[in-house]
Structures are given as C-alpha cells and as structure tokens.
From TrEMBL:
It comes from the Eukaryota. Residues 1-20 form the signal peptide. This is Uncharacterized protein. The lineage of its organism: Eukaryota, Fungi, Dikarya, Basidiomycota, Agaricomycotina. Keywords: Signal. It comes from Hermanssonia centrifuga.
Length: 241
C-alpha cells in the first residue's frame, strides 16, 4: 500500500541512531514520492485528455478521452517504482558511503566524498532529492509518450479508432456518391491531422509537469514549490533508523 508523506508527519519522531537507508527505508521513501506524485501526474494527464477531446469529432468527455491514455497510465503504474528507486538508490545516494569497506573521513557526515545513503544525508540533500523525484517522474511520462514507443502507438491507434467511428459514416456517404471506390482525400487528411495534433499534445507533458509543480527540474530555476513536500518528507525520512 502506498502512503502519501503528507499524511505521515504526525506519526514519527527523529531517531537517535543514523545508519544506511536500506530495506523498508528504501521501499517506504520510494513509495512516498510515487504516492505524492499521484495527483500532479493525474492532473497533467487530465489536461492532455481534455486537449485530445477537443480535437475529436463530437468532443467526448475528458473522462472518455482519459481512457485513450490508458496504455500510458498502465505502463507508468507498472514501471514507476523501479525507476524511482534506481534514480534515488543507488544512482545518487550510495549506501553507507564506504570506500573499499572503510568510511571516508567525516562519515557519516553527509558532505563526505561519497554521498551517503543515510536518512540524515537524504534530508541534508533534500533539495537535490526532490529534483531527482521530479525529473524521474517527468522522464518516465515523457518516454511513454514519445512517438515510436509501444505506448505511444497504442494511444495513437485508440484515438484514431475513436475518430474513425465518425469518419466511417462519412466514408459510407462518400462511397455511395462515388461508385469508383477511391479513398476520399478529406478523410485521409483528417487522419493525418489527428496524428500531427496528437504528437503535439503529448509533447506538452514535460512542460505541463513543470507548470504543475511550479518550476523546472534543472535544480536552479525554481524549488518545485508545489511538488516539494519538504517538511513532511523530511520527518518521514528521519523516522527510519
């Protein structure tokens, strides 16, 4: 079960001892970030679904258009944990920060030469940690919505199928008036337009994530004020020994 760190602050006290973030610590912190991003990700995909709805015949509801994004949402749910854990542990935070089995001078000082993977270090470098979580979330959504990916192709086909339901009716009318059976050019153009517009819409995911979270992921421009959860997350991290 995933728990948002926003709901965990009242339950934890800072422990006396500090050791490496391992096992339950890694799982808990990874799931907390994924849970925290549930609403921002849903909001971005709702925005995308609304734009898809606007380009389809009869403008279906956003809920219906959100269903066309199911290949992306399903793949995100499946892959989010592994990607987030790897991005944090060990891509940036490295266990007990030992070098050849020996703690470097100053460890467990979080400013030791190797970035310690201790709760104290995670809190010390929280400014970096929140960017890691944001960039990983943005990256996985962007990759799933990139033309050529399996998920993109599935979304494109589902959207085309929805559009073609109306196009087929128009095609039958055209065929009745055109006994030669040639493909109506306006229908081919409409399909090409839908593909072009869908590509443009899905390419907005990174910028929508930045707008939703209140900044970019470069670590300098803005502190991601709407996707930080700094106080509750620090308290949650420090609840682990």
């Amino acid at each position: 079960m995933r728990f948002s760190a926003l709901h965990l602050l009242a339950f934890f006290a800072v422990p006396v001892t500090v050791s490496a973030c391992e096992g339950d610590c890694i799982v808990g912190i990874t799931n907390a970030f994924i849970s925290n991003y549930t609403d921002p990700v849903h909001g971005v995909l709702e925005n995308i679904a609304s734009q898809i709805s606007n380009m389809l015949p009869k403008h279906p509801s956003s809920a219906s258009s959100l269903h066309y994004l199911k290949p992306i949402t399903d793949a995100y749910s499946k892959d989010a944990y592994d990607g987030m854990e790897t991005a944090i542990f060990p891509n940036y935070f490295h266990g007990k920060c030992q070098q050849n089995g020996v703690d470097p001078p100053g460890c467990p000082n979080p400013d030791c030469p190797v970035v310690c993977g201790t709760p104290g270090s995670l809190v010390h470098f929280y400014g970096k940690l929140r960017y890691i979580a944001f960039n990983q979330t943005k990256h996985i959504l962007q990759s799933l919505a990139t033309p050529g990916s399996d998920t993109y192709q599935q979304v494109e086909q589902d959207v085309l199928n929805a559009a073609n339901a109306n196009m087929k009716r128009m095609s039958r009318i055209y065929a009745h008036a055109n006994p030669y059976g040639t493909t109506p050019m306006f229908l081919k153009k409409r399909e090409d337009d839908i593909k072009t517009n869908l590509k443009r819409i899905l390419a907005k995911i990174p910028s929508l994530m930045e707008r939703t979270c209140g900044g970019s992921g470069d670590g300098e421009t803005n502190g991601l004020s709407d996707c930080s959860w700094e106080d509750p997350m620090k308290a949650y991290i420090l609840s682990f020994p």
